[in-house]
Amino acid sequence: MAWKCRLRQSASVAGAAAASLGLVACSSQAQSGSGGSSTSTVPVVHALRRATVSFAEQPGAWPNWIFPFASLEWYSPANVQQFQYLMYRPLYWFESPTTTAPVLEPNASLADPPSWNRARTVVTIHLKGWRFADAQRVDAQSVVFWLDMLKAEKAYWAGYVRGYFPDNVSAYGASSPTSLNVTLHLTGPVNTTWFLDNELSQIVPMPEAWDVTSLTAAPGSGGCGEVTGGLTTGAATAAACRRVWRFDTDDNGRSRHPGMAADRATYATNRLWQEGADGPWRLRSYDAVTGAAAFGPNPRYGGLQKPYVSGLLAVPFTSLAREITFLSRGGPAAPQVGYGSLAGPVGISITGYRHELALPWATSYLLVNFNSATGRYLLRQLYIRRALQLLVDQPAIIRKFDHGDGVVNDGPVPTAPQSPFSSPSLRTDPYRYDPAKAVALLRHHGWRIVPGGRDVCVHPGTGSGQCGAHIRGGTPLELEQAFLVVPGSSPYYRYEVASWAKAGIAVRPIPTFDQVESISACAPSMLQCGWTLGASGWSYYPDYEPSGEDQFATSAISNQGNIGSYSNATNDALIRTSTTEQGMQALFAWQDHLAHQLPVIWQPTAASVIEISHRLAGVTAADTSFAFMPEYWYVPAGKA
């Protein structure tokens, strides 16, 4: 499936994107250290010294962008969670070695939890004063630098949705560049949990070493991120920030000069990328052709949990089949798996591993193109979308194609893992599989049912019992160009298409949905907008609260989240309320509304199979946001 999310990533529709696979190579010397949860006292462990752990990069999708201020083009799990975040930590860290749902980990964050004024219009960030690898402190200037760049280049930030961050920040600043407090003034009151989880969570403090316009320039000479002691709107530094951004990103990858983010061959040799590390790892080597990478511990990392191993290797695979073949090698000389995901339910058992299941913090669905050149009038009818949903047998799909390892989706908030965000009203699926109800719904709205063929509108018009606006008499109920997958390539979709056909809804797949991923919104006149349904989904990270501003708000059309051009005033108002009012009730009201309105056709979400070597310790429950924390991994003494 093409997960349509902040971290856009293609994968099988029946499973999440591959996270990682680890191989362990160890020496025979032991050491003692402490490890465990970053929020509690850590136990003492006995780990092999100079052990090296290797993990598999996502098959066919290795990292190719190092700068942690990324446009949509470069926003993927391979680039962010499994590459940038190893070296460059966001302001607040939401991964955990002991839980499956994303939770705030204060002890692994660069800042303490923020404080608010009573009106919820002013928030203050309290930095801890950790250091970058070049010894500069992560201070107010590091945060203001990122905010100034965001204000200047928000159109090139993958997380931008008009009206939200940074548009909802009117001013920000600090008392001095070296202060550890940064204050943001907002345009109005916000839900403080949402603002922390979805806005502050995306700030990645940047060092002065990156505030330059040439490799030989003095740190901070670029003029972006200046702290003068008062508040700023970012306007005064906008021009300077644009110059710095063009240098750091090689004009978003369009230019290879002067050799920054687009010059992948220099990732491990360009001192700027080394000096900017504030995470547990620093990049030692990187192959620009294959994507293979090697990391070593960052001695200046300020977190409680320092890496046990001396080396972390990222191993590329061109396909999942090659990865499975590699994992399946037997014998004492075979490489051992440390930690890895097999990209969805896989009915195999591999000697030497234990396996766990991880459900992604995500929802799965078929996009509905409300501006389709061919089927827009059909899909704009809520009753037709309801009929489509009633014919999706999610429990059967999970049994038949996911080995029973998956969950039913009935709305925009993940049903698993458990979280406080799920509405109590959606504990029962409002559109459980019911072919008879789907047929009755279509017949009631003026269609002659033709099982195995194409239903026909026999009662055109907009009144009760009629087909609806712009649907003429004799119109067939056919989605002529359903943009699903390559025809015949997926039994999952053949099963679903066959289910719709039983009620006379004809769906004809055409080639892969990835071809329209670059379209921000469709107009009926566009040749590339003939598609009607598209395999997709949404992963909630690094904006962890499952609110709807990024993929269902009308304004989200601008950042490609709402590629189906769904627009509903009630939905927009409910989203806005959920981001401004305290508590969960507004979020519940929004998801209850949207679950019934069906802006998409909900699909089941499959678990990933996580393989963990018996030789590797420190690996607990698999995280669901495709990030991992290898600083906790170690090889126990005696398991060489």
Give the arrangement of secondary structure elements.
Elements: E1 2-3, E2 9-10, E3 22-25, E4 30-34, E5 44-48, E6 52-56, H1 80-87, E7 111-116, E8 122-127, H2 140-153, E9 169-173, E10 181-186, H3 192-198, E11 231-232, H4 238-253, H5 271-275, E12 281-286, E13 293-297, E14 311-315, H6 320-327, E15 336-337, E16 339-341, E17 353-358, E18 362-368, H7 376-379, H8 382-390, H9 394-401, E19 406-407, H10 435-444, E20 447-448, E21 456-457, E22 478-483, H11 491-502, E23 506-510, E24 533-539, H12 569-580, H13 585-597, E25 600-603, E26 605-606, E27 608-613
Parallel strand pairs: 6-14, 22-23
Antiparallel strand pairs: 1-2, 3-6, 3-15, 4-5, 7-8, 8-10, 9-10, 9-11, 12-13, 13-14, 16-27, 17-27, 18-24, 18-25, 19-26, 20-21
Helix pairs in contact: 2-4, 8-10, 12-13
Number of E strands? 27
Instruction: Categorize the overall geometry.
Output: globular
In quaternary terms, these chains amount to: single chain
The largest sheet has its strands arranged as: 12-13-14-6-3-15
CATH class of the largest domain: Alpha Beta
The main pleated sheet reads as: 6 strands, mixed
CATH architecture of the largest domain: Roll
Low-confidence stretches: 1-41, 331-337, 513-518
- Proportion in β-strands: 15-25%
How far apart lie the N and C ends? 39 Å
Cα-atom radius of gyration: 25 Å
- What structural class do helix, strand and pairing data support? alpha+beta
